[in-house]
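lol forgot to send this yesterday, sorry. struct tokens for the thing we talked abt
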């Protein structure tokens, strides 16, 4: 996002960081000519991100590598221990 000196000044006055702006652009919705993110949308986004985090942690705990071939329904998992460099 290109930000002008005016945007930088107003964001600083309101305590809005660049990360907050980028998060809104990634997860918000367009309402008219503005990006919109309210408490309800934030709660939904947090719930989705927590679900993704839960899956990522389960994958990490399994030590597995998931392979999907050419976008088909083929799914193969390997129990890989990187410390031993063995399957």
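and heres what i got for the seq, position by position
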């Amino acid at each position: 996002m290109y930000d002008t000196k005016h945007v930088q000044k107003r964001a600083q006055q309101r305590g809005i960081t660049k990360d907050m702006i980028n998060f809104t652009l990634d997860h918000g919705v367009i309402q008219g000519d503005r990006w919109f993110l309210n408490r309800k949308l934030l709660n939904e986004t947090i719930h989705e991100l927590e679900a993704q985090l839960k899956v990522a942690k389960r994958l990490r705990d399994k030590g597995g590598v998931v392979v999907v071939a050419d976008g088909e329904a083929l799914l193969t998992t390997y129990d890989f221990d990187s410390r031993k460099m063995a399957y």
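The chain has a mean pLDDT of 81. anyway ping me if u want another try
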